[in-house]
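### Sample
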Amino acid sequence: MLFSPACSFVLLFLLNIVDSGRILSKINQRFRDLQAQRHKEFFLTLLASKSKPLQHVKEGWIHQPLDHFNRQNVKTFTQRFFVNEAYWQRPNGPVFLFIGGEGPIYNFDVLAGHHVDMAKEHRALLLSVEHRFYGDSINPDGLKTENLADLSSQQALADLAAFHQYISQSFNLSSRNTWISFGGSYSGSLSAWFRGKFPNLVYGAVASSAPVKAKLDFAEYSNVVGLGLMNEAVGGSEKCLAKVREAFVLVEAMLLDGNFTKVAGDFGCCQTPKSPDDQMELMQNLADIIMGSVQYNEEGVLMSIKELCGVMTKTSHNATQEAEMEAYNRLVKLSQMYHSNSDESCLDISHEKTVKELKDVSHKNRRRAERQWTYQTCTEFGFYQTCEDTTCPFSGMVTLQAQTKICSKVFGISQHSLPSRIAFTNSYYGGDNPNTYRVLYVNGGVDPWKELSVVQASSEGSQTVFIKDTAHCADMSKERLTDRHSLREARQEIENHVASWLRTDALEKMTKSGA
């Protein structure tokens, strides 16, 4: 195992987000960039107070087997991690493990966030480990389809078990050191699963916005977005949802009438949406703008539900003919607002280009994740956000058939094999009824991913925190002045659970040593 000082100031703090369309992926990136700016400000505050936040942070690498389950395969890859010893009370202080998901990790994963605040209080050793095949934890030929066979959540959990052993040896840890794992979205699922599969290694787990249930046709995502648009507590209204529905009906009607050039011009498309595949890409991208606004709501990424509904319900005093297209024009306005804050000259709706980019096996950008994550959706999770249900507020062009054909086009994975793959994942982990003890599932009320998480405590020992009016992974950030009261209370509840786990483990160890 190799350690090196984390000497560079990296701006990106990773929150791992599972997503669907191209624009939603870009909105996710905006969220990460916004988090980066907030943590830069926090970092500068620390410097102003003459603190040296990076002094105790080290970057490390370990060699992991590519296949933990085949002892005859001796191939390896190097896995990246960060350690922050600033708050650790040697030798018996707890260990807080922040698990990486579908993207790179950065030193801020052990410098900022709610788990870091708790580490200060409990004098914990802070760790963050990168997921195999993402960021820098990938071999140069790792993106080739034949090599992606070693990319799975099961292998990732085995990596965590091996990482636990390496860290324990490196820091002379013992059973006196209580391990708690943390993660959000996909990495939140990994946090819960790590506790479920290796309860001897990790004492408790916090799983924020964790979609632990795999689902092929995730129609509920769009339905929850629709409910968010109606939620008056966060600025929505029935009129807002009605206008969104009407807008997508009008876009479809324009396409059916062959007004391809006008639609392309109105929405600033790079291509004219003549083919069904390109039309589906257009509809998915327009839906993504609204999905992203609801998923992140008041996190300042794009616009809040209140702001979005303000645009969609604004009444104009135009002539009757123009008034009939008002909802369409409002959606055009939303699209223009999105593009005014992006670095793209036009809206790319080429399905052919999407497939070509997903087939690219070069690893030029460490932040690249689309090919790997798409592979995992095809082989393990599904999560396809469709719109074939009558309650969906968007376009029925976004079908399961249209989305899953990517699996066969890009990876040669049969669409017919997907249901059995999803079923295996749920059998292996337990779906949304896992037999996990001392796992805390945290979810926000306007987050569509709560539909695949655990939102009610179970008699088996699963614990929950439900934050009525907040968004995806909101609890994981540092506290802000603008946070809702419900979010502040939820963080306190999370802190209470973690503190209780640590006290309970300490008492159990004292009892055993005295016996």
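The longest strand covers residues 57-65. This sample (Thymus-specific serine protease-like) is used throughout the tutorial notebook.
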